[in-house]
Amino acid sequence: MAKEGNVLLGILAIILGILVIIFPLISVFTVSLIAGIGILFLGIWLLIQSFGVWASNKGVSISYLILGILAIIVGIGLFGNVLAFSFLVSLALYIAGFFLLISGFLSLFSKEGTAGKGSGVLGIILGILYMILAAYAWNPIYLAFLIGIWLIIDGIALFFVNPMEVAEAQN
């Protein structure tokens, strides 16, 4: 069974998931604000890095400068823009779904045995599922429902996960 901290995080995730579903546009707007601010700060940090590296490596400095300017533009563009945020989330899901689908087909036809074929079929199914979710993520209301459902499922899972067992299983 999970520890007390996980139970508290699980309850908070469930409450947040319900709030996101109840107030979908406000929730997506808030997430787009947070994402915009985060990317804006990343851009500022990259700009500062470009000036700090100038003396030692001009190529890296110019790369930091270009990435910083792009990040600032994207951060300002995302700042409170629900449609831009929905577009980027949907695009990311399409790309992930495409890669899952292709890797699933490659695994299905290249691996031997039941486990190899099973992982290929699972990759294909997940790729199709990602693409279906991407089609719904274009709409900010559906995106909020997807985020809310994910938070609720994650909150419920936190009731049953012991972080010590996960750490031991990874070692």
TrEMBL record:
Pfam families: DUF308. The chain crosses the membrane at residues 7-27, 33-55, 62-85, 91-109, 121-138, 144-161. The keyword Membrane applies. InterPro entries: DUF308_memb. This is DUF308 domain-containing protein. Keywords: Membrane, Transmembrane, Transmembrane helix. It comes from Methanobacterium lacus (strain AL-21).
